[in-house]
Amino acid sequence: MKKILSILLMGVLVISLTGCGTEEIKEQTLVCTTTETEDGIDFEQVISMTYKNDKLNHMKMEVNTKVTDSNIQQNWEEFTKSLDKNNEEFDKDGVSLKIERDNENYEYNTILDIDVLNASDEILKEQGFEGLKEDNSTLEDSKESAEKDGAICVIK
Description:
The structure is a single chain. The protein is an alpha+beta fold. The chain contains 5 helices and 7 strands; from the N terminus they run αβββααβββααβ. It has a 7-stranded antiparallel sheet with strand order 4-5-6-3-2-1-7.
């Protein structure tokens, strides 16, 4: 009886260690792009959302700005100072914001990176993403919503 019990326990141990019955993690990234031109400024917004088993776990949002208006180009320094006031770089609690400038080509880009699983609720609220962790939208839900708003989306 002890020998049978030992064999059964070994079987259970082998099954649990080999991962039998565990589901495969499915990871997909949704990339949505919108573009707009307004008053001599070209805007491109690219949002990448990575889902694991249809649950959002990472998001990266880039806003790429290119100035084509010569009046704004002549006042480039003042223009970027104004943008800098609203976009301070930081990296804390699972969220970072970086700024890239190309003064020769009049480009100003912001990159917001969010580790949804590790970001604090406080920093998500500060950045306007309150409730992001609790959002149950699937990749397809997000794709449909973004496309309804005029974005072009692809799944990678």
